[in-house]
Structures are given as C-alpha cells and as structure tokens.
Amino acid sequence: MSDATQIRFRAATEESPATRWTLIALAFAGLAILVFAPLIAVFVEALADGAVEALRSLASPDARDAIRLTLTIAAISVPLNAIFGVAAAWFITKFDFRGKAFLITLIDLPFSVSPVVAGLCIVLMFGANSALGGWLVAQGYPIVFAMPGIILATMFVTFPFVARELIPVMIEQGRAEEEAALTLGASGWRVFWTVTLPNIRWALLYGVLLCNARAMGEFGAVAVVSGKIRGETATIPTTIEMLYQEYLSVAAFSLAAVLTLLALLTLLLKTLLELRHADQLAANHRH
Amino acid sequence: MGKPLIHRSPMPGLGLSMGITLTMLSLVVLLPIGALLLKGAHYGLAGIWETVNRERVWAALYLSFRLSLFAALFNLIFGVLLAWVLVRYRFPGRRILDAAVDLPFALPTAVAGISLTALYAPNGFFGQMAAEIGWKIAYTQWGIFIALVFVGLPFVTRTVQPVVEEIEREVEEASATLGASRLHTIRHVILPMLTPAALTGFALALARAVGEYGSVIFIAGNIPLLTEIAPLLIIIQLEEFNYDAAAAIGIAMLLISFAMLLVINLIQVWSRRRIGYV
What we know:
The complex is a heterodimer of chains A (287) and B (278).
Chain A: H1 3-8, H2 17-46, H3 51-58, H4 61-94, H5 100-108, H6 115-126, H7 131-138, H8 147-158, H9 160-173, H10 176-183, H11 188-217, H12 220-226, H13 236-245, H14 249-276
Helix pairs in contact in A: 2-14, 3-14, 4-8, 4-9, 4-11, 4-13, 6-8, 6-12, 8-11, 8-12, 9-11, 10-11, 11-14, 13-14
Chain B: H1 14-52, H2 55-88, H3 94-100, H4 103-106, H5 109-120, H6 125-132, H7 141-166, H8 169-177, H9 182-211, H10 214-220, H11 230-239, H12 243-275
Helix pairs in contact in B: 1-12, 2-7, 2-9, 5-7, 5-10, 7-9, 7-10, 8-9, 9-12, 11-12
C-alpha cells in the first residue's frame, strides 16, 4: 500500500502522519534539551579530568563524611515516614470520622510549602533563640545545626509521599478482606501483617522509593537547618554546593553523579513497579 | 450535629493509627508551621508589612512570581503535548521518554542547578551557542526561567496523562461523524476535557516554582533587584540572624502557597461538578 492510500484511509480520530511525527519530534527535542542534556552534563563534568580523578574526589574526607551523613539521615527519616504513611492510611481508610478531607489536606501541606520556608519553620521552632530550642540546647540536645534538625527538615519535605501513595490504593481495596479475617478470629496485628500488608506492599515500596530519593537529595530545607558544618552537618547536596562554590568542579560533579545514579536507579525501579504491579499502585500519580 | 466525631467500627488499631498520625503530623509539620505563624503574630501585621514593603523584597517576590508563571505556562503547553504524544502515539523510545518525564522529580535540585549552570554558562554547551547570537542565559532571568521549567516539567504531563487515557474514542468518532474536522474536534471536544487536569498541573507547577531554591540559585547569579528570588532572601536574612525579617518573608510566601492550594482545590471541585472526575 502506498503512503497516499494510507493517508486517504486514515481514521477520523487520528491526526495526519505529518502532525503526528511533528508532535513526536517536538516531544523528543524538548526532553532532549530539558532532561537528557542536564543528565549527560553531570557525567561529562564529573569525568572532565578522567575517571581516576572523579573516584579520588569521592574518596576525600569531605565526600565520605557527606555520603555517610546522607545515608544515616535517609535511614532514619524514611522508615519513620513509612510508619507514618501506613498509620495515616490505616486511620483514614479504615475509619469514618469528621474532618477526613481536612486531615488529608494537612498531610499534603508540605508539598505546597517552599523547602526554604520549611527549614525556616524548623529553625523558628527549635532554634537556640526559641523557648523550646533554648531549653533543649541547655539540656545538651541541640536540634538546629545538628542531625535532629536535618532529620526533621527531611521528614517535613518528604512527609506526604508514602501516605499519598497508600490512601488511594487502600480506599480502592476496601475493608471486606480485613473484616472477613476479623470475623474468623484473627487479631488486629495478624490482620495487618497477613491481609493488609501483602495487599499494599508494592504501593508501599513505591512510596518509600520516592520518599528516599527526595530524602537523599533534599537541599533547600537542609541548607537552612544544617549550618553546613563540614564533617558534621554537611549532607551530599550541601557539600555539592560548597565544592561548587570553591570552584572544585570535578569534586562537585562527582558527588552529583552519585546522586544522579541514585535518581536513575529510582526511576528504573519505579518504572518496573509500574509495569509489573500497575494494578496495585495508585492510578493517578501527581507528585 | 447528630453525626458522631468518629463512627464505631469493628476495625482494630484506631487508637494506635490515630495516635501515630496526629503526633507525627503535629511534631513534623503543624508545630513548625505554627511557630512561623506565631512569630508573625508576635511581629505584627505592621512589622511584616514594613519588612515586605521594601524594594528588594518586592523585586524578589515579583521576580519569583513572574518567572514561575512563565515557566508554568510553558509547562502547561509542553506538558499537554507530551501527555498526548505519550498516550496516543506508538513510536520507538516511548517508554524512555515516559520515564524521563519523571527525572526532575527524582534528580536532586542542587544537582539540577549545577548541571544547568554548566550547560548554560557562557562557556557551556548551550551557553556558547546562545553567546554566538549575543544571548546570555546563565546569570540572567533566562537562566532562572529554564531552571523553573525543569523542576515543573512533570506536573502537567502527569495530571493530564490519565485523563487522555480515559477519553473514549466514541466521543471523537461522534464529533467526526457530525462533520467536525480533526482540529475542530481537538479544540472543542478534547481540550475542554483536558482543561481541569491541565489547570491542576499548571497550579502545582506554579506552586513548586515559586518556592524553588536549589535548582535556581546556581544559575541565577543572585543580583539584588535583578535575579534574586524570594526564597534566597529568607536564607540571607537567616544568615544575618535577622529572624523577624526572615519570618515576615516566609509568612508572605506561605500565604501565597495557601492561596494556590485553595485555587487547586477549587479547580478540582469545579471539575468534579462539571465532568464528574478530576
């Protein structure tokens, strides 16, 4: 069949091939400039002086301290947010109460607050010149410019991730299976571990994945509360900023490449989850 | 009101799940935001106004808003195009494009910031090309615009995509049968169906851009009155231990965020009434 006949018999609900390929080309061009170019630039800049130099800069004390701190922060804040997400989703989907919509809005709040404002809030609440912060410092537990502040800031910006993912999934699954298990005499925890958790495990993993990516990469909120003290409160993103401003480009981009690889791994796992377990994930992903 | 606060339910774990939810929500989110509002109340409306009503602050707020609006508008158009292409067309590389849309969510903002700066600086890959025609991108408002387009890229696509998937072909067929051209069908049948989702995505991208810090500060140049964004002003005030002023600007930004959140919710209510889904 020649091209001409194909055009003549084109369905009325399709665009002409010319339009179609123009739109596809625009999509490719736009994403090439906006997404792929920055992605490639990270690795090009990191390898500007060769792979050996890039690896050497990753082994420097600054980089190692930053990686250790970021892993610690994620290891504490992500599980805490996962526990919150499961508890909040359970509370919201298994019970009927007044003000449910308002509660969901409050949980979503961190998504619409600037990370810098989030950091500011934590400084005002727990900083040394607030009543609570001053008392905590006197007791020997400083929050701001120390690890607890970074954890709080990280938890603030990643707060809705797990809950947002679980709530729609658990609404869709309803309560019938849990009710059946209860009727058959299972205890509350048994119902959770053997009925609910297997049903929501992929959605939970999905939420944790996104939460973790953001937790390891958060910059604005952490920059405000951490004080960026080398070897103590400098995370990977804040160390990248310091190195970059000292014109240590290779060192900055090498650390950036580590976070970029993490982002790519996150996207890969996320895509796999969407392909394999689409039916067990929230259908509408907004964040 | 006759309705009980919490309905009786055979489900276990009410106390535990409610306790964890409310305690953590309060500790991590509500109390810190409350601390900011309290600081503002202490400082007084007049004090807040005095801090905000300075040329440098107005310039920063106006800059943040204007460029966020432009970036969100760009993302609105490109996002709808992208959603359409990804759902309706089949071509090699579609899955990679689909996954790439999410990269701005996954890539840390500081990484995006230094990478965009490397690309658009006068000696960078795109910066050199632009310099040939006398166009300076990095360290100007163009640079901020590009960073804001980057961070807001996924929102419109991800809100519109599921709606495009649900459009029933019958509607388009009916329109075509009745003699409408493809362009007419798209303008008068398809685009109205996408509008609520596209507007929601637009508002989300706008809200994100207004508060964005990490990806912008590297490429912005941060010249007062010219390329200084509002979140940076807060950081500057904090570094000078000027907590009152930082809180005043923070409250101004918080109120703007709340207003946008309200608009997003109104769009969703409006769309639910109009077409039954968001």
